[in-house]
Structure formats: C-alpha cells, structure tokens
Amino acid sequence: MVGSLIAGVSTPVPLQTGGEITGNIENFGAAVAVGLAAFGAGYAERGIGAASVGALAEKEDLFVRVLILTVLPETLVILSLVVVFLVGQG
C-alpha cells in the first residue's frame, strides 16, 4: 500500500465494510499542503490578533489597518486551496 502511494499509483484499498478507497500521492500532498497552510495562518493570527486588540484599545482609528492585517494570513489558506484545485485538474 505504501509503495503504491510513493509510486503515485491509484490502487483500491479494501475496507471492512466492503467498500473501496482509491488514493494517490497527489491527494495526500494536497491535504498536507492545505493543513500546513491552515496551521501557519492560525499561528500567525494568534500574534496578530493579540497585537491588534491592544492597538484598537488605544487607538480606534486603526480599525481598517488591523482588519487587513488580521485577514492577511487567511489568504495563505485560500491560495493553497486554489493550488489544490489547479493540481487536481491537471
């Protein structure tokens, strides 16, 4: 099973319920990429969120800048999903 994943060959894997799962290395790589991008975005937002709340407490005029900086890491996840869909079509 692992050898077929490394070779990139889609092979059916029997389940206990009688069904089959087909998978290949591209799907696994895409899942890892999106998962790591989401983890990285969450890690970045942790620090940005704490700093932005402190900045907003002192100056409410910074709301737009804080909002942009808070949303910016989420673009990583969106871009990784776009890459997944582009690789899936190829």
Describe the structure in your own words.
The chain has helices spanning 2-7, 25-58, 63-71, 74-89, and strands at 11-14, 20-23. It has one domain (24-89). It is 72% helix and 9% strand. The protein has a two-stranded antiparallel ribbon with strand order 1-2. By secondary structure, it is mainly α. Mean pLDDT is 79; it is low at 1-5. Belongs to the V-ATPase proteolipid subunit family. It is found in: Membrane. It comes from Halobellus rubicundus.
The strand order across the widest sheet is 1-2
Mean pLDDT: 79
Rounded radius of gyration (Å): 20 Å
- Fraction of residues in H or I helices: over 70%
Unreliable spans are 1-5
What form results from the Cα inertia axes? elongated
Which sequence of SSEs, written as H and E, runs from N to C?
Answer: HEEHHH
Number of strands: 2
Number of domains: 1
CA-CA gap between termini? 24 Å
Strand content: 5-15%
The SS-based structural class is: mainly alpha
The helix tally amounts to 4
Main beta sheet strand tally, sense and closure: 2 strands, antiparallel
InterPro entries: ATPase_proteolipid_c-like_dom, ATPase_proteolipid_csu, F/V-ATP_Csub_sf
GO cellular component, one term: membrane
Transmembrane segments: 62-87
Pfam families: ATP-synt_C
